[in-house]
Amino acid sequence: MDDIWQAPIGKSLDVPVSAALPPIPLPTGCHVEQLIWHGDPVGGAPSARVLTRTGDAATVRIARGERIIADLKVRRGPARTPRPHALLRADLRAGAACTRLFPVTAAVTTDHVPDAEPVLSTPSLIAFMEDTAADVLRPHFGPATASLGTWIGVRHTGPAYVGQEVTVTAVLAEARGRRYLFDVRATVDGRPAGDGQVAQTLVSLAP
After folding, report:
1. Per-residue model confidence as pLDDT tens digits over 76-121
2. How far is CA 2 from CA 7, 8, 14, 18, 110, in A?
3. pLDDT tens digits, residue range 123-145?
4. Which H or E run includes 122?
5. Strand ranges for 42-190 from DSSP E
6. Residue 51 — left, alpha, or beta (φ > 0 → left; ψ -120 to 50 → alpha)?
7. Dihedrals phi, psi of 118, to nearest 5 degrees
8. Cα R_g (the chain), whole angstroms
9. Which CATH architecture has domain 97-204?
10. Where are the domains of the chain?
């Protein structure tokens, strides 16, 4: 197979792509450091190509034509052992989760589509997801600690109307230093409304 450390940037790799993890064969001594899904594969076989390569890390994009399926960061060497950050009173491991319900009120909707009923706005959906992710961290804050949303990668896939409730679940996917990455999912009456990932970063409020 083409070596991701040698292939030209943007060139398709001659490797099989699967729905398993990792989705492509990895060179010896490498591991997947981060995987972000953008959509489920549909149709023919997808391909992989190197997007960026810096030092011991490379980002590989999996796509079918113009449709992006996933981006994964591959790093040389063994996976790092996560350690709790000093701003938390207790360790948090992958899988820690929180689920919250958010009522849809007029204040969180948008009516920019003429002659259509107002629906939950995408910024409001993202705010719900970020607040739910922060709620995974908040019970474990040490003194003078807070968290801020520092990255989002979210799809808004279904509407929510005034009077409905949005159920949001955030699951910790990765902890690295002060940065915590969450898988997030939103549903309305059992149907999908949005999904993706958000990151929260710990900050100290101490003077």
Report:
1. 888 765 555 788 888 888 899 999 999 999 999 998 888 889 999 9
2. 6, 10, 6, 16, 48
3. 999 999 999 999 999 999 988 99
4. helix 122-137
5. 47-54, 57-64, 67-76, 97-103, 109-110, 119-120, 145-156, 165-176, 179-188
6. alpha
7. -55, 140
8. 19
9. Roll (3.10)
10. 12-76, 97-204
